[in-house]
Amino acid sequence: MMRKIEMVDLKSQYQHLKADIDEAIQNVINSAVFIKGSEVFNFENELANYLGVQHVISCGNGTDALQIALMGLGLQKADEIITSDFTFISTAETIGLLGFDPVFAEVDTNTFNISPSFIEKVITSRTKAIVPVHLFGQCSDMDEIMRIASEYHLQVVEDAAQALGAEYTFADGAVKKAGTIGKIGCTSFFPSKNLGCYGDGGAIFTNDDELAENLRSIANHGMKVRYYHERLGVNSRLDAIQAAILRVKLRHLDEYNQARQKVADFYDHAFAGLPELMVPQRNPHSTHIFNQYTLVLEDSSSRDHLKEFLNSKEIPSMIYYPVPLHLQNAFKYLGYGPGDFPDTERLCKSVISLPMHTELDEEQLDFITKSVLEFFGR
To answer: Which residues in 153-179 are b (16+ Cβ under 10 Å) and which e?
Structure first.
C-alpha cells in the first residue's frame, strides 16, 4: 500500500535521523544549557564553514533575521528599500515595520525572482537598499543586481530562506552560495525549509567584521558587554536544542538538496511537452535546490480545478502565493493598485506547487504525475 503523500514529510525524515537527533537533544537536556552555549556556537561556526562566510549570527526566526539585518544598515526613516512583489510578506513586512518604505519590483516570469531591469526603473534618490528573494530554491540574477547596487551605491540584503545551499556562478566564473553575495544574507530554519529545525530559527550571514559585531549586538538587546546597551536591539535567539538538531541536519543538507533535485527531474520528465503548464525554469547561473516545485498553468482558470482534483486523490498542493504584496491590505497605504504588476498578478492566479521533500518515493511520484496528466486528459 502506498504511503500517504505529504506536502513535506518531516516524520519520515526524522526516522532516518532518529538516533542522532535524539542523542543531540538529550545532550542539551543533560547539559541544562538551553540558551546560547556550545551547541549554538558550534552550529554558527559549522554553518559559516559550509557557506564560506566569516560570520553567522543565529536568531529566533527568519523574519527576525531580516529585521536585524535591516536594523544594522544604518538607514533613516522613509528610506526606500526595493524588494520582490512575489514572495511571502515577511520580506516587505520588516521594511515597513522599521519605518522604511517598501518599493515593489516585478519578477521574471520564468524564474519567479526579482527583475533587475525593473529594479532600475524604480530607483529614486531615497533608495538605499535592495532585498532580492531567492524564491523556491534558486538565486536571483546576482550579476545584474550587484552591478546595479554598485552603480547606485545601494546595499544588498539577500533573503535566502528558500535557497540555502544553492550556488551562483558569476560571469567571471566565481562561485558563491546563496546569501553570501550581498552585504548581508538571511535565512529561516522553519521546519519545511531545506535546512529546517523542529521549531523556529533563523540566521544572518556577513563577511564584514564590524557589521557582524553590530548585528550580534542588535540581536541581544543592543548589548556587546552584558548590561551595557549601546543601541536599541531585540531579543532574538536560536535555542540550543534547535541548534543541536540543525547541526545534525546540516551534515545532510547537500544530500537533501540532491534528493529534491531528483524529484524535480522526475516531475520535469513526466510533464515534458505538456502545453497546458510550464515546469520550473532554471536560472543558468544558479543551481536550484527546490524548496518548492512550482508549476505555471497556461490557463489560470484551471488552477483551482486542478487543486480540487488533486485533493480528491489525497494529493496535497499549495498556492505560493495567491495575492501579490502590492494588493495586500497591509500595504494599501503605499498606493499600489490592480494592474501595476501584471506579471506577478498573472503568476498569483496561475501557480501551483506540488509535493516536494526528501522522502518522496517513485510510487508516490508516479501517482502524483499520472494524476496531473489525467486532469489534462493525457
So the answer is: ebbbbbbbbbbbbbbbbeeeeeebbbb
How far apart are the C-alpha atoms of 86 and 269, rounded to whole Å? Answer: 27
pLDDT tens string for the chain (378 positions)?
Answer: 899 999 999 999 999 999 999 999 999 999 999 999 999 999 999 999 999 999 999 999 999 999 999 999 999 999 999 999 999 999 999 999 999 999 999 999 999 999 999 999 999 999 999 999 999 999 999 999 999 999 999 999 999 999 999 999 999 999 999 999 999 999 999 999 999 999 999 999 999 999 999 999 999 999 989 999 999 999 999 999 999 999 999 999 999 999 999 999 999 999 998 999 999 999 999 999 999 999 999 999 999 999 999 999 999 999 999 999 999 999 999 999 999 999 999 999 999 999 999 999 999 999 999 999 999 998
The answer for residues whose C-beta is within 8 angstroms of residue 326's C-beta and 6 or more apart is 85, 104, 334, 336, 337, 340, 341, 344
Closest CA to 104 of 76, 137, 81, 79: 81
Strand partners, 294: 353
Q: Could you give the CA distance from residue 81 to residue 254 in angstroms, rounded to a whole number?
A: 32
For residues 28 and 35, give the distance between their C-alpha atoms in angstroms, rounded to a whole number: 10
How many residues are present in the chain?
Answer: 378
8 Å CB contact between 205 and 63: no
Of 247, 184, 173, nearest to 215 by C-alpha is 184
Euclidean distance between CA atoms 43 and 163, whole angstroms: 19
> Strand 277-278's sheet: what is its strand order?
277-278, 293-297, 351-354
d(CA 199, CA 196): 8
Q: How far apart are CA 328 and CA 4, in angstroms?
A: 34
Joined grid coordinates for residue 15 = 526516522
d(CA 322, CA 347): 8
CB 219 within 8 A of CB 236: yes
